[in-house]
Write a structure and sequence with these properties.
By secondary structure, this protein is mainly α. It is 67% helix and 5% strand. About 1% of the residues have low confidence. Helix 1 packs across helix 10, helix 8 runs parallel beside helix 11 and helix 14 runs antiparallel to helix 16.
């Protein structure tokens, strides 16, 4: 077990680098999970709106009251320099000037286009705000044209604009998914990156000429030495697995339904990530190359495998190509566990379990073969 012990001695000297990457990806894990566990709702943000009401009529006040319900409204002077300063300083991002006799002209059927608006160049809400104003004024004008009295038209316009649509994300049933589902979803990206960038630097040291030659002089065969290195990597992987699962329990302390399924899939994907790192260490000899490869593989497999982009948003050709990636089968397994309503949910993910096991052992065999040939 000489190589096994040497692995941890080398890792002890590189513990600062390892803990740095582990800390980075722990933070990323928390960030990703927190940013995606509340995607089922749509909430309108409030914009800063300045209003100069020169009309002081019933309709102008009703328009101000309506905008105040959905936006942050403040009174503003109608002087051009005051309005320009307010936009320039960022005090408001949208200004509405209601001219004199606006309400009177609207009653006469000719004041609908008299409102003057100004907007900040970098405002993202101007189109929505203009639509709100046009909706209210248009509804009021419509009821007037239908023969309604001014007060009745105003009341109906107020009721009309209060009707809101329920907005939901189409094609993705996020409302039924527990928060910890997203935690396990993003673990795939985290595991790939943290194993390559965290364990990889230790394997780079084994590729150094002095250490390699010293290990070659030991009584261990090349195959046994490689297996001992992989065994040590698995021990570190188990430690990372326990660390991230404990993090998940701290973040989501409620009951985890079908927890065994999530834990099995996460453990198998970590096995795939460790095997992938073992293979990469056969031909990547610098920390920079490992970092580059972790970004390429981590981001590439996450985008194509359904981690970052839901598979229902992908084209058929992309999904067919994604079948070649372990992240695809990992996500398929997670989705089946989440959607299952029976106690036999483990039987529904046998295909994902089998494919992940095959990936892990194939990558391990390829890594052993590469190291044997290099030896």
């Amino acid at each position: 077990m000489t190589t096994f012990r040497v692995f941890f001695l080398v890792m002890k000297k590189n513990i600062g680098t390892v803990m740095l990457y582990v800390g980075i990806f722990l933070a990323l894990c928390i960030f990703f999970t927190a940013s995606d566990n509340d995607m089922g709702n749509f909430e309108v943000s409030k914009a800063a709106v300045g209003i100069s009401d020169e009309d002081k009529s019933q309709i102008s006040q009703a328009l101000v009251d309506y905008l105040s319900e959905t936006q942050k409204v403040c009174a503003l002077s109608s002087k051009k320099d005051k309005m320009t300063d307010a936009l320039f300083n960022g005090d408001v991002e949208f200004i509405i000037v209601i001219p004199e006799r606006f309400g009177e002209n609207l009653l006469a059927g000719k004041g609908e286009g008299e409102l003057v608006t100004y907007t900040s160049p970098d405002s993202m809400a101007d189109s929505f705000l203009k639509m709100q104003v046009e909706e209210f004024v248009g509804a009021y004008s419509f009821y007037l044209q239908q023969g309604e009295k001014a007060q009745e038209a105003l009341e109906k316009a107020r009721e009309n604009v209060k009707i809101e649509a329920q907005v939901e994300l189409a094609g993705r049933d996020t409302s039924q998914k527990p928060d910890y589902f997203y935690f396990f979803q993003y673990l795939a990206y985290i595991f790939v990156c943290v194993t390559i960038t965290g364990i990889g630097p230790v394997l780079v040291c084994f590729g150094r000429k002095d250490l390699s030659e010293r290990l070659t002089c030991s009584p261990e065969s090349s195959s046994k030495r490689s297996m001992n290195i992989f065994a040590a990597m698995l021990v570190v992987g188990v430690g990372l697995y326990i660390l991230f699962v404990l993090l998940g329990r701290l973040l989501f302390q409620g009951t985890w339904e079908h927890a065994a399924g999530y834990l099995i899939l996460a453990g198998l994907f970590l096995f795939v990530s460790v095997s992938l790192t073992f293979l990469l260490s056969s031909f990547l000899k610098t920390n920079n190359s490992l970092t580059m490869m972790s970004n390429i593989l981590g981001l590439g497999m996450s985008f194509l495998g359904g981690i970052f982009v839901p598979m229902e948003f992908m084209g058929d050709k992309v999904i067919r190509a994604a079948h070649l990636l372990p992240t695809y089968w990992y996500m398929i397994g997670l989705e089946k566990v989440q959607a299952s309503h029976s106690s036999g949910y483990l039987g529904e993910i046998t295909s994902s379990i089998g494919v992940l096991l095959i990936y892990g052992f194939v990558l391990l065999a390829a890594g052993l073969l590469c190291k044997r040939r290099r030896a």
